[in-house]
Amino acid sequence: MIRTNWTMAEASAIYALPFADLMHRAQTLHRAHFDPNAIETASLLSIKTGGCPEDCGYCSQSAHHETGVKATKLMGADEVLAAARRAKASGAQRFCMGAAWRSPKDRDMDKLCDMVRGVSDLGLETCMTLGMLSPEQVARLKAAGLDFYNHNIDTSPEYYAQIATTRTMEDRLDTVEQVRKGGIKVCCGGILGMGEAEEDRIAMLVTLATLPAHPDSVPVNLWNEIEGVPVQARAQAVDPFALVRIVALARILMPASVVRLSAGRTGMSDELQALCFLAGANSIFVGDQLLTTGNPATWKDQDLLARLGMHIAPAQVRPRGAAE
Ligand code: SAM
Ligand code: DTB
Ligand code: SF4
């Protein structure tokens, strides 16, 4: 049963279960909704890097922090399509284009729609993450064929103000709602390891699991260390079992959503990743690069999946260019 009325007390009790009981519950639900040996693969490209007016305390791309990331202009559609072809050749099913914006400018919309159409015609699922969107911008991206939109809540409602001040969690949730109402699938999750309490991590998942509809995919990022950002001073390493517990809790609260083990895999052992897959994670980013930080090499991921007998899942939505 898909529930959207979870309470903090219920979620905290599940999170605190003995590890074997928690894993059994997560796996039972995982198997009821998904092939447990299948994994979804997405590839990221930063189509507009740095110089962002927002002050997110974890981000290398904010103009408020000295991180050494060089600001670039929006890439041309041809360059984006060349990267999408390479991503497809190395096994990606979805191509996610990210821009360091508070929100896109209307003058950029034609180019963005061209990118969506072009990537879709290659037979890839399309995803974008561009900041806040107006309902008109949602409609234009939807008409161009955008399948998914990523917009994270990042942390709990209580901790949010410690992380960003140029926008609120309500702003984030408004965009998520516009995207959902506009018929684009929602990808929404957050980050662990920014100095938040375990309770904040649970509250972040409860916030997602009590939306009118669960996000279609839930990225769980481990904070990727960035020199020069405010989060660096309060970041704390996440206990590996705490990560697995959060993945399991996401699987239990949102059983039909895809849970993506996102940033932070370069620092994880193969064994920890395998435990996360057992706990219900069923998506990863593939390719050597995330937006401005690294990701495991393609050969390493292929080797890990082969050793675990896992295969790439059939795409959730049929891209426009895919064979019938
Ligand atoms: N500007 C858009 C936005 O904020 O929605 C899109 C790009 S933004 C980089 C996408 C997401 O990446 C953030 O919401 C955050 O969850 C994640 N992220 C950014 N920096 C990160 C880091 N250093 N470690 C882990 N995740 C990070
Ligand atoms: C998400 O939740 N993680 C991705 C994607 N959505 C856009 C981004 C991770 C970024 C990691 C830091 C970087 O590479 O700059
Ligand atoms: Fe800008 Fe997004 Fe980075 Fe925040 S997370 S500073 S909005 S690019």
Automatic annotation (TrEMBL):
Its EC number is 2.8.1.6. [4Fe-4S] cluster binds at C52, C56, C59. Binds 1 [2Fe-2S] cluster. The cluster is coordinated with 3 cysteines and 1 arginine. Binds 1 [4Fe-4S] cluster. The cluster is coordinated with 3 cysteines and an exchangeable S-adenosyl-L-methionine. One of its GO terms (molecular function) is 4 iron, 4 sulfur cluster binding. Pathway: Cofactor biosynthesis; biotin biosynthesis; biotin from 7,8-diaminononanoate: step 2/2. [2Fe-2S] cluster binds at C96, C127, C187, R260. InterPro entries: Aldolase_TIM, BATS_dom, Biotin_synth/BioAB, Biotin_synthase, Elp3/MiaA/NifB-like_rSAM, rSAM, rSAM_sf. Catalyzes the conversion of dethiobiotin (DTB) to biotin by the insertion of a sulfur atom into dethiobiotin via a radical-based mechanism. NCBIfam families: bioB (TIGR00433). This is Biotin synthase. It comes from Roseovarius pacificus. The gene is bioB.
